[in-house]
Design goal:
Essential subunit of the Sec protein translocation channel SecYEG. Clamps together the 2 halves of SecY. May contact the channel plug during translocation. It comes from Intestinibaculum porci. It is found in: Cell membrane; Membrane. The chain is mainly alpha-helical and about 110 residues long. It contains 3 helices and no strands. The longest helix has about 35 residues, at about 70-100.
């Protein structure tokens, strides 16, 4: 807003900007409402689509079955963590037992 604008022009410009912001907020509100409506599942019984034999076949095709190598690696990781955590809990129990024995509580 420049200095050579009259008060009426400034007020008119201010009112115009206010109206534009109001329209923009209304448009954004409508857009959010439309997006929310698009996200809502209109068919709550949609599970029937995969309850058919052809639907089950389609879902099975989407499954990633691990290869022997992937299965072996994953099993090794599980076994290693089981051993490590077992040793940790055994050592923690032993330390707590020593502390209790030193305090005469055992």
């Amino acid at each position: 807003m420049s200095d050579n604008m009259s008060k009426e022009e400034k007020a008119a410009l201010k009112a115009k900007l206010k109206q534009e912001r109001k329209e923009l907020r209304a448009a954004k509100k409508i857009e959010r409402k439309k997006r929310l409506e698009d996200q809502i599942d209109t068919d709550p019984l949609k599970f029937k689509d995969w309850a058919t034999l052809s639907g089950v076949r389609e879902e099975i095709k989407k499954i990633h079955w691990p290869t022997r190598k992937e299965l072996a690696v994953d099993s090794g990781v599980v076994l290693a963590f089981t051993i490590i955590l077992g040793a940790f809990f055994y050592a923690s129990d032993a330390v707590i037992a020593l502390i209790l024995k030193a305090l005469g509580m055992n």
